[in-house]
Amino acid sequence: MAQTILYYPNININDGQWLRNALLYWDNISSIVPYDNYGDLSPELLYLQDSRIYEPIYPQDLFYSEYADDFCKAIVNRISRYEKGQDKNFSMAGAVKVRIRKEKICAPALHTLIHYRKLPPELLNYFTDKKYIKDYNTDGWMEIDAKIAQIYMRTLAEYSIKCSDKDIVLGTDKVKSSREIYSNFTSHKTESQCCKINILKCLPQPSLDTSFEEILDFKSARKDELNAFRIKIRELERNIYRSESIEEIKHHENSFIEGWKNCSSDYYKVLKDSNIKFVLGNLSTLVALPFVGTLITEHIGQNFSDAVQTSGPLLQMAINYIDYKDKINPNKSDGGFAYIMNARKSGLIQL
Q1: DSSP code of 349?
Q2: The pTM is what?
Q3: pLDDT digits over 52-74, tens only?
Q4: DSSP state of 121
């Protein structure tokens, strides 16, 4: 199955570096777009859409899915916690107004869906009744409280990932954006354990003066070499997921490092031979860690392996407790489900 990365939190992807990274290492790129034939996609996304690489995700697909009822309930519950000051990710202080497309909140079809399926009260009316939103009837735009918009958009992204029939993961260039959806758990439970993997300063990422055409040509001409490199990372994720102890994770860590040296050296050469200019950046990912029946309390929030030294730092892993249960796509349960890519910051990216 083709692998899709969903950019969060914006429609258009302003970071040219991130977009090039995603184009090279994923089969498809997505972002959440209000409706079909949306007219404000960036030239870059329009080009990638014509190339069948970029695929918009529409809220209406969620509104008609089996997750629609849960989505509406989640919005109401989260806003209720926000109002009571119980949501650690949001504060009532300093609320401002932002603009949001009406179709992202409630298309006319959503009203019908709520009526016939006996879902909770229609969200647009709910927002209006709570005085979080004002409709000025100006080209579909409404004014909405910024904190409410943030709650809404992170919930929309979360449920769009869940209801998709694609092999889809969250991607961003911002730590804060990743934490909005996959926040730290205050209580440590076995089912919330995950492994944070940081691959440091050794992931080749196309430079900004590398064109999309050059990247697509490279993916076509050197498909086997690229897939061999990508598989190394996917295998590490799957092996971590299937591990049953810290010792087993360390074994897979050492195996990955041994294999990475030769694989990355060959891959760097392929890039250079293809005249693809690249920089070495970081990749951070979160991987579910079932450890059925085992709670690794001694490693809470701590690195259990030091950054491994080769010619420089390469790999670091730690146990985290993340609120990810029931948020990830079922097709991604055995692999990474949240990615941060950044080539311009030195050192370790902290999730």
Answers
A1: P
A2: 0.82
A3: 999 999 888 888 888 888 998 89
A4: S
